[in-house]
Amino acid sequence: MSKHLAKKDYDGDGKLESPEKEYKGVKDKAIKSSKKSKKIKKVVKESTDIKNFINAISTKKYALAHKYIKQVVEDKIKARISSSLNKPLF
């Protein structure tokens, strides 16, 4: 009994597998890539807000500085709450 293999390695893992496994591999790779992209966007936004905060402090625009630091702190708190909700307490 021979296995039916895909025509090429679609998921890029170096193995020719069944079309179903290749499909699952491609899907998994896309999901992981999407998660990385979201994390990168969060880090870029956070560093931009911190840069803007420092700039506002140095130009003595304290209300604007408060806005930027508040956003950074709120995002950090939301991330911590979200991660703690996904973990069991005990």
Which helices and strands occur, and which strands form pairs?
Blueprint: H1 19-58, H2 62-86
Helix pairs in contact: 1-2
Describe this structure in words.
- Helix 1 runs antiparallel to helix 2.
- The protein has 90 residues and is mainly alpha-helical.
- The N and C termini lie far apart (49 Å).
- The radius of gyration is 22 Å and the shape is elongated.
- The model has no long low-confidence stretch (mean pLDDT 86).
Content-based structural category = mainly alpha
How much helix, percentage-wise, in residues? over 70%
Number of strands: 0
- What is the general shape? elongated
Helix segment tally? 2
Radius of gyration: 22 Å
Distance between the termini: 49 Å
Mean pLDDT equals: 86
Note poorly predicted spans.
none
Features:
90 residues; mainly alpha; elongated
Briefly characterize the structure.
With 90 residues, the chain is mostly helical. It contains two helices and no strands.
